Amino acid sequence: MTAVDPRPLTGEPVALDLLNTRWAGEEGPHDLFAGAAGLSRLEGLAVWLESTGLAGRFRADAPTLVHLLTAREALARAVADPAEESARALVDAVLEHGRIRPTLSAHGIGERTEFDDRSWGPAWTAARNYLELLESGPDRIRKCASATCLLHFHDVSRNGTRRWCSMAVCGNRAKASRHYARTRER
């Protein structure tokens, strides 16, 4: 049985969900892959694999964790500055470890993902998902507008104006802060 996911924001596309394995709480920074909520590094990996639907396909082992940390750093740099050539090179380096093979079956055209080493699977999947997000709308990949929040999200709102990782947390804090400032001025 997998432990409960302690992260404040889950359910984002895999690439952003990987970035969100680091977050800031009231008691300081947290890292799901570095002992957050009393989990070991591999337990944190198992939680993440389960939450992203990858647990049945990939193992929560040390090589997978190392490759996932490589992908997380590459994605963090690419999301922070998509024009940075070295960040793009890091994402490309992760993508080198897998490919999509077209297939033909009785049901029609399909695809099969292949990896030179299965432990690269989750890292490659996250990097590939980042490319898909870029293709569908790079301006919809956002960091929470709160200065103290580290979380990222894919803005799927109709008009593309989402600012907060969560209205219940960061959005509410911002509203409360503005209200407090207004009432203090009076």
**Structural class by secondary-structure content:** alpha+beta
Arithmetic mean pLDDT: 92
Say what oligomer this is: single chain
Sheet with the most strands, sense and barrel status:
2 strands, antiparallel
Uncertain runs are none
Q: Reading side by side through the largest sheet, how are the strands ordered?
A: 1-2
Gap between N and C termini: 54 Å
How many helices does DSSP assign? 6
Kindly state the percentage of residues in helix. Answer: 40-55%
The shape is: globular
Secondary-structure element series: HEEHHHEEHEEH
Number of strands: 6
Supply the key terms.
single chain, two-stranded antiparallel sheet, alpha+beta, 6 helices, two-stranded antiparallel ribbon, 186 residues
Q: What would you say this structure looks like, in words?
A:
31% of the residues are buried. The protein is an alpha+beta fold. The model has no long low-confidence stretch (mean pLDDT 92). The N and C termini lie far apart (54 Å). A hairpin with a 2-residue loop joins β3 and β4. It has six helices and six strands, in the order αββαααββαββα.
SSE topology sketch:
Elements: H1 14-19, E1 22-25, E2 28-31, H2 41-52, H3 62-80, H4 85-95, E3 98-105, E4 108-115, H5 121-136, E5 141-143, E6 152-154, H6 167-185
Antiparallel strand pairs: 1-2, 3-4, 5-6
